[in-house]
Amino acid sequence: MIKRISLCCLLAFAVLAAVLTVNQGKALALDENSCLDCHANPDLFKTDANGNKISLYVDPQELDKSAHRFIDCTTCHTDDPHHVATPLNKLSLAEKCGTCHEYQYALYSDSIHGQVVSSGDQQAATCVDCHSDDSNPHSVIRVLEASAPTYKKNIAQTCAKCHDNEQLMASYGIVEQVYETYMSSFHGKALELSSYTVSQLDKATCTNCHGAHDIKAVTDPNSPVADLQNLVKTCDQVGCHPGADLQFAAGFLGHREASPQNQPVAHYTEVVFTIILYSVVAFGAIVVLLAIIRYALNRWRNES
């Protein structure tokens, strides 16, 4: 009996391996209308009214791993996609996502990103900029997958795609080194050193302080970081810093380096400790150098 069960298991594994081998390289995503027969061609494109070439290529491998792999193309592109005059811009993409993700779209529409995109700006972030590594609607990854741009371990790097771009940020009047200052902070270092397991991802990242779909401008009174009162509530949320008060929040540097104008106490404390550090290192180096010189002189005298 045991031999028969073993043989059945081996046969099942052999059949599974054969199926995987036969289907290797083929798209596993749902494609009821055989759209990939054409759109899996990297050279497929169309020309818009301005003569610009727009790629119509869909990478089957990316689609196979996407969160929407079991949703047919026509769900987003309609039953007659070749005769629908849909503008290909960030606003239309967000609106299309909103047909299913209504709650998230309502939050996004009222956010600073959504407001900027609604004004016609094509640089501000929309759904696919955050949920896809290459801002591609066909490669959106589930939030709970460790490789997802919106997995907590990866959120800072995702925000950095825009917020670490000095030229782009300057166009919006944002001069703070957002990503750099976060990664040099306690929160950033702790998150960077933590593993991908959920139990260790309890450190604050961008969305913990600013929100996710509902991110507000820091000048908006409703922003979680708009002023010290709001910041106290944000620091106290979900048990991060229970009992946080105005004095605690006032010590936050934000995304700016300490300077004589911004947190002068922290700035001059850093200066003092830097001087002490360099002094100790220099003194140690001098002691070692003098010891080497003395050893060399003693050896020279003994030899002579």
Overview of the structural elements:
This protein is an all-alpha fold. The protein has 4 domains: 16-85, no CATH class; 88-140, no CATH class; 153-257, no CATH class; 261-304. The chain has helices at residues 2-22, 36-39, 60-65, 74-77, 90-98, 102-109, 112-118, 127-131, 155-163, 166-170, 178-183, 186-193, 206-210, 228-236, 246-250, 264-303, and strands at 45-47, 53-55. A two-stranded antiparallel sheet has the order 1-2. Helix 5 (90-98) packs across helix 6 (102-109). The chain starts with a helix and ends with a helix. The model is unreliable at 19-25 (pLDDT under 50).
Beta-sheet strand percentage? under 5%
What is the number of strand segments? 2
Task: Tell the overall outline.
Answer: extended
Report mean pLDDT, rounded to a whole number. 86
- Order of strands, main sheet, comes to 1-2
Distance between the termini: 92 Å
Helical content stands at 40-55%
Assembly status: single chain
Number of helices: 16
Could you say how many structural domains there are in total?
A: 4
The ordered string of helix (H) and strand (E) elements is HHEEHHHHHHHHHHHHHH
Largest sheet: 2 strands, antiparallel
The low-confidence runs, each spanning 5 or more residues with pLDDT under 50, are 19-25
Structural class by sheet pairing and helices? mainly alpha
